[in-house]
Structure formats: structure tokens, C-alpha cells
Write a structure and sequence with these properties.
This protein has 261 residues and is an alpha/beta fold. It has one domain (2-259): Rossmann fold (3-Layer(aba) Sandwich), CATH 3.40.50. 38% of the residues lie in helices and 21% in strands. The chain is built from seven helices and eight strands. It has helices at residues 43-53, 71-74, 85-100, 103-118, 135-146, 193-205, 232-259, and strands at residues 2-7, 13-19, 29-35, 58-62, 123-133, 150-156, 179-185, 210-215. It has an eight-stranded mixed β-sheet, sandwiched between helices. The two termini are 31 Å apart.
Length: 261
């Protein structure tokens, strides 16, 4: 893993992790843009990005809170596995940052992330995929709505994907061309059953291939092993469904183009 700095349209830079397959599997790999959760860019995000990279991808994970500071400046001093620490951190730090990252700011940033990903050495310049966790799931959906060459979206324990607001992420699905895999937490106040049902209806109406599943017993944030919410079974299920999605949408496309010379 190494870190790069991405020039941003509103000024300044966003640092980003870059992860590549540890084993040599060819000169070029499909690119995957990974959006962190509300806790921020940190070792757990790096662990997940490397696991995905080892499937045969180059993964870029940007600090989407770059307006608030660098990742080390925003990092929690404490252990999110300790009782009550996660709740306090979200109330005092994480959620204010999420609210400051408005949809218009996010949609100005997203093209810069895609340009950076496609410009990395060893990244096939064609189709890409994107993955998002927690509030990052909203960013992943917005990315597919902005760029028709995003062909795969994995969105896990996402919140606020369907709201009454004019800028609700689900409203952009009509412009997307990707295949979607959603893995929702159960009893998630940020994504209640009626919102999940509406998301499914919207995906169907847009003619998109999609999986829109609830992971029984899994709480919001279930993939994050550095928190008290971590659910190993749900996390492994998400990795399995995610790998299948990326392999059929990205590796298949790369193989087909390679065979045509």
C-alpha cells in the first residue's frame, strides 16, 4: 500500500490509499474506487482494500473528509470496541463531518477520484467498479449515476440511500448503467424496511441488475472489525458477494478485451 494526494476541484488535496495485488497477475488490472465509512480512512479500510486488491484489482480509497483535515488529524484517540466509545465518536465527530459533506460537494469530488483511479499506473483505463460502506454507500451510488463507465457498485450497511429529499441518492439510479449489490443491516434506522423496498422498486424501474438483501442479525457497520458492531459472518458474506460482482463485471470485461487483442 502507498498513499497519494489527489488535487481537488475546491482546492487542496485528498490523500488516498492505493492497494495493488500482492501477487503478479498481469500488467494491468481493473480499477476499484472504495469509499470509507463515517469513521474515516484508517488501517481497517486499508485491510479491506488490500483483500479486494488481491482478487486482481487496483483499489483507490480516498479520504472523503479532506475538507476537515488529513486522516491522521481526524483519527479517533481511543478504541471503538470499548463500550460507548463508538456512540460518542459518531455524535461528536463522525456525523458532523458526514453532514458537512453535502451532495453538491460530493459530486464535485467524485470525478477527481475517478480521474486519479484511472490514471494510476497499471490500471486498465476502461470500466471501473466502486464500493461504499456506511455513508460511503451513498457516494458509490452517486458515482454510478455520474459516470456510465462505472459497471459495478457494492454498497454495504449504507444509510440514507432513500430519502424524501430532491438529492436522495436513489433518484440518480435512472442514469446508472452498473450492476448493484446492496447488503443492508437489519433494523437499521438509517435504512428502514420501507426505504429498502423503495430502493428495490427504483432499481427495477430503472432496469438495473441488482441484489437488494438484508443481512439477518447484522447491525449497521457490521464489516468494521475495529468496532464493537463487527459481525464476522456478515462480513464474510459481503466479501463473497462483492467478489462475485467484481469478477463478473470487471474481470469478464478485461478478459474479453484482451482476447480481441
Amino acid at each position: 500500500m502507498h498513499t497519494i494526494e489527489i488535487p481537488m476541484p475546491d482546492g487542496g488535496v485528498a490523500e488516498a490509499y492505493v492497494h495493488r495485488p500482492l501477487a503478479a497477475t498481469g500488467s494491468e488490472h481493473p480499477g476499484v474506487l472504495l469509499y470509507m465509512d463515517a469513521i474515516g480512512l484508517r488501517p481497517r479500510i486499508g485491510e479491506m482494500a488490500q483483500r479486494i486488491a488481491d482478487w486482481g484489482y487496483v483499489v483507490l480509497a480516498p479520504n472523503v473528509f479532506h475538507r476537515d483535515g488529513r486522516a491522521d488529524e481526524l483519527a479517533l484517540e481511543g478504541d471503538l470496541r470499548d463500550a460507548g466509545v463508538r456512540e460518542v465518536f459518531f455524535k461528536q465527530h463522525a456525523m458532523p463531518r458526514v453532514r458537512r459533506l453535502t451532495s453538491d460537494k460530493a459530486e464535485r469530488d467524485i470525478p477527481a477520484y475517478l480521474v486519479a483511479l484511472r490514471g494510476l499506473p497499471g490500471v486498465d483505463p476502461g470500466l471501473v467498479g466502486t464500493i461504499g460502506y456506511c455513508m460511503g454507500a451513498r457516494l458509490a451510488v452517486r458515482t454510478a449515476a455520474l459516470d456510465p463507465e462505472v459497471v459495478a457498485v457494492g454498497a454495504f450497511h449504507g444509510g440514507g440511500l432513500v430519502t424524501d429529499a430532491d438529492d436522495s441518492p436513489h433518484r440518480g439510479l435512472v442514469r446508472a448503467r452498473a450492476e448493484f449489490v446492496f447488503g443492508h443491516a437489519e433494523n437499521d434506522r438509517s435504512m428502514p424496511p420501507e426505504a429498502i423496498a423503495k430502493l428495490g422498486e427504483t432499481l427495477s424501474e430503472a432496469g438495473l441488475t441488482a441484489s437488494n438483501e438484508v443481512y439477518p442479525g447484522a447491525a449497521h457497520g457490521y464489516t468494521m472489525s475495529d468496532t464493537s458492531i463487527y459481525d464476522e459472518a456478515a462480513t464474510e458474506r459481503h466479501f463473497g458477494e462483492l467478489r462475485a460482482l467484481l469478477d463478473r463485471t470487471l474481470h469478464g470485461d478485461l478478459t474479453a478485451r484482451d482476447s480481441r487483442g
